[in-house]
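Today's session is about reading a structure prediction critically. Students often jump straight to the picture, but the first step is always the sequence itself: look for stretches that repeat, for charged clusters, for runs of hydrophobic residues. Only then move on to the predicted structure, which in these notes is written as discrete structure tokens rather than atom positions. Here is the chain we will use throughout the hour.
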Amino acid sequence: MFPDVVILAGGLGKRLQSVTGGAQKVLARINDKPFLEILMDYIASQGGRRFILCVGHGSDEVEAYFKHKYQDREIIFSKEESPLGTGGAIKQGSGHVKPINFWP
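Below is the predicted structure for this chain, in token form.
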């Protein structure tokens, strides 16, 4: 069983604003596909099916794009109501992770 995948997807992306125009950095397009879609497709090709996206800045854009994007994957949005920082976002998102029993 592939473990849940937690992805930080809520940073301001200040260094990428010239590329993103202020939009959420995980939606920056590479060959006409958002970076996050490329990443999730790769992880899914390795067996990943359950994604927890830690979103904050630009969360509405990210949620709108991915909410109904895939039928073969579960996407959970862990939304920051106020900025939590990297550790805080991961801590909040980890509450959605399903435990895995490695021992039969």
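Discussion point for the tutorial: The CA atoms of residues 8 and 86 lie 8 Å apart.
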